[in-house]
Amino acid sequence: RVRARDLFLDAVDAFNAGKILGERIVIIASSTGAALTTWLCAQAWARPFIAGVVFNSPCYRLYPAALYQVTKHLNRYLPRPAAVAILTAAVNRPYLPRGVMGFIPFNHDNQYYWTHRYPVS
Which of 98, 34, 21 is nearest to 61 (CA)? Predict the structure, then answer.
């Protein structure tokens, strides 16, 4: 089982490896790695060594939380075709059954190598 502490320690280890390779670091991260990089950028001891960051699909939660509460229940208050059209256009995700999240793969490699549908609770 992976704990949050383990992820933070892994991020620090990767950061230290980057410092060995060069004076300043450009960090490229996606999903949870982007969230961990955001945390890393907030650390005073790390900031002087970070030259820049590039995020691909960071796993951030919508803020304010009320916005998330409205959008996640959009299909309850609108006719189904309207809710599906709005959500699909807004987040480039097809309508998926309850308990499943994902996105439309943009090419064959993306579909083959990337998890584009996954269960959520």
Answer: 34
pLDDT in tens, 4-55: 889 899 999 999 999 999 889 999 998 888 889 989 999 999 999 999 999 8
What is the biggest distance separating any 2 CA atoms in the chain, rounded to whole angstroms? 56
User: How does pLDDT run across 51-67, given as a tens digit for each residue?
Assistant: 999 988 887 765 555 65
Q: Is the peptide bond before 119 cis (omega within 30 degrees of 0)?
A: no
How many Cβ atoms from other residues are within 10 Å of residue 34's Cβ? Answer: 20
Half-sphere exposure of 90 (CA within 13 A, CB side): 10
| Cβ atoms of 103 and 96 closer than 8 Å | no
The residue behind tokens 């999240």 is: 101
